[in-house]
Amino acid sequence: CDSGTYSAAGRRNCSSCDSGAYSNAGAAACMACDSGTYSDAGAAACTKCDLGRYQDKNRSEGCVDCDAGKYAGHTGSTRCEPCSAGYYASSSGAQTCLKCSSDWEGAADAEMRARYHSVEGASACNRCADGYYMHSGDCDVCPNNAECCDGATLQSITPLPGSYRFTNTSKRVYACPMVGNCLGGIRPQGQCLEGSEGPLCAICSSEFFMHSSGERCEPCGDTSFLASGLVLLAVSIAVIIAVWRRTRLVAFYHARKEQLDAIGQRANSFFVTMQILLIYQHTRIQVGGTQVPSPYDDFLEMLEPLTFDFVTWVPFECMFNDRSFDHLDALLFETLVPLGLFALTLLHTVVQRRMHPGKDPSRPMALYVQALFLVLPVISQRITKSFSCSFYDGRRFAFLSAGPSIECYSDRYWFMYAYGVCMMLIFPIGTPLAMLTMLAKYREHLNPVGVSESVVVQRRKNDPVLVEAPIVSFAIIFRPKWWWWECYNMVRRLMLTCMVALYDTLPSTTVFMVAVSIVTLVFEREAKPYIDPFLSVFTYLAAWQILLFILYCLLIDANFTDGSQSVIISSICMLTNVFLCLVVFFDTRDHVAKRKRQTAGMQAGVLDEGGFELNSVYSASDNGGGGKATQRVGDRGDGEAAEGSGMDRMGGGSVHNPMTTAQAGHGGGPTDSKPDLEDERAGGVLKESNSHHGGIHDGHYEDEPSSNGQGPEEGGGGERGLDPKDLV
User: Cβ atoms within 10 A of the Cβ of 184, count?
Assistant: First the structure.
């Protein structure tokens, strides 16, 4: 028999093999085809299944196409292999699987294809890769602050710890302002830590309060808040002791007035600088800035009490049982308490003025203004944060940016809005204007027209009008033409602390801070407003510290620095602040001695080291008249000369300033007693003589006539030179 046929024993004819079997020539029987092969009737051999087809049975007359999602990559397959994860076979009979990230026809382009994924044996790329989620058949990028694992859908987006999602259909996940309150994940009990609730988990539940770190709610029984409270208690005790021992403190102050004033002026500049840095650090974090790395972050946290934000020190939430202590409550506290103290101070002033008509009662008001100077930035920032709203989920939700417990456009919000506008007029706008108005009343004494700067500086120290007006302490440290500089300083502080809070994005906040800090730094450098040149340099360096910190934060937010490089810069910033702090207290004695020498030069008519000319107080004229200035010498000299005169600016008395004529006396010895310069308004005659005897310039002072009408004694011989130090 031929191949494909067979003949059994005893048969005369050859028969064809059935389908699924084959035979060789001369075969007595047909053999079945193995799995993976097939044959038609009368086949001399079995045929392997083609690519994309398989046969898992013996004696088969044909092969079967692989199902969608499977493939047969070689002939004679006994089964189809499922497509691996990330691959697909959209139709049956696939010879190979296609890759989702490069071949999926359901995506518009290669970038979109990279987002798709599939499970094993998939006929389509119907899942999203890690970092994407499926929504309406498309793979969208996973939102920030969330995790999207392989195959994530809109409903299964998982918030990270410290993040919050309003609903399971929200396409955005938001960073929580109190990161410790937000647990993240998908939990049956919700996203908030126990003791917190509401949008963004930013509301502390009943019997819980916001921890001073601002990261989580703590039970009211927790005493961790006492760390900040102890600082407030220590300050209060120090104030009480100061009031109790005020007599000794006043004596101590007067004994070291120059040194303590220098320390106080530098400390004030250091305080202002650090308060600006601390408040800016909080502001930029709230708009998405990156935390400053250690060790500078630890240093700033240590100085946190300098913000004087009392609301964060005391757990006011524990005083409310029915609701949380929100932004409006804090606003009312921080504005009504200063206004109440102002009313009490004003009442005290009025009562004292009526009870003691001849006594100036304005010192308590000056102390109030000084205290308000410390807390004004915090109060003003609280006010400016009372207007801005944050919108969530495409304006589906709207809450106050500074406190999500207040829903925008609610009745409570509109009340706070109106109240905030009123407080804006009183504090950040009204306070600098009020100070400028009060100082302007004394402008003629602080900067009289037509009088040299050096004369004004000396005259202000003993001006009875200024001495009796404590408010001028804000102007007396500045050069006469800059008497209003403290008002400018206040506006500058408010711009860098509260006005910046009006911006709600990190780029706009940074641009505003950089612009303001550069402009004010240049103004500070060009003005040199302080009488003390060293203090001008110190405040100039402090202004540089602010600008450098802002630029450093810009580098951090732009990811230009990281790792050890960022830590090195952080350490440099901290050391710079420590240096400024040390300068506040050291080198003061040498500086005070230098100022005294400058004062001597000012009174002697020499040039000040600060760079502006100091004219002699004895060389100008005044329209007033009356008394005569007297220079007394303990032991009278031997001769006198008087030529030329001018009217004394200080009091109107005459001053004799001889230029060429000298009269030599005779008799007597040299005068070596230290002159005692009497008040120029006292009524004496100041005479200065120049002697040409022996080519030596000598100055002699003569008492005014004695009570018996006789002139000065005349003696022989002795002469004494005029020393500028003796004038002091």
Answer: 20
59-74 residue pLDDT tens: 998 999 999 999 999 9
Structure token pair of residue 387: 């207007």
In the predicted structure, residue 145 carries a pLDDT above the cut 50: yes
Query: Buried b / exposed e across 517-546, counting CB within 10 Å, b at 16+?
Result: beebbeebeebbbbbbbbbbebbbbbbbbb
Residue 665 amino acid letter = G
**131 and 148 in contact (C-beta within 8 Å)?**
yes
Closest listed residue to residue 487, CA positions, set 441, 442, 435: 435
Q: What size, in residues, is the chain? A: 728
What would the mean pLDDT of 184-211 be, rounded to a whole number?
84
pLDDT in tens, 210-224: 876 667 888 887 555
pLDDT of residue 231: 62
Q: Show the tokens assigned to 642.
A: 């008087």
State the Cα angle at 43 between 42 and 49, rounded to 5°.
140
- Does residue 323 carry a pLDDT above 80? no
DSSP codes joined into one string, 46-59:
-EEPPTTEE--SSS
More confident residue, 148 or 504: 148
CA atoms within 13 A on the CB side of 374: 13
Q: Is the CB of residue 292 less than 8 Å from the CB of residue 551?
A: no
Q: Is the pLDDT of residue 604 over 50?
A: yes
> For residue range 94-143, what is the model confidence (pLDDT) as tens digits?
999 998 888 887 776 777 888 888 889 998 888 888 999 998 888 899 99
User: What does the alpha-carbon distance between residue 94 and residue 106 come to, in Å, rounded to a whole number?
Assistant: 18
Angle ∠(193,196,202) on CA atoms, nearest 5: 110
Distance (Å) of CA 482 to CA 475, 524, 560:
8, 11, 41
Please state, in angstroms and rounded to a whole number, the distance separating the CA atoms of residues 503 and 484.
29
Residues 6+ apart with CB under 8 A from 162: 145, 175, 176, 179, 180, 182, 184
Angstrom distance (rounded) from CA 525 to CA 539: 9
Tally Cβ neighbours within 10 Å of residue 238: 10
DSSP reduced 3-state for 26: coil
Distances (CA, A) of 617 to 204, 456, 595, 606, 647: 67, 9, 18, 11, 11
User: Can you read off the two tokens belonging to residue 515?
Assistant: 């612009």
Helix/strand/coil for 154 = helix
Residue listed under structure tokens 């005493």: 223
Q: Report the interhelical angle of 327-355 vs 363-384 (nearest 10°).
A: 160
Rounded Cα distance between 607 and 701, Å, is 24
Label the pairing between strands 203-204 and 208-210.
unpaired
How much of the chain is helix, strand and coil, in % rounded to 5?
A: 40, 10, 45
Phi/psi at 391 (nearest 5 deg)?
Answer: -110, 145
**What value does the mean pLDDT of the chain take?**
78
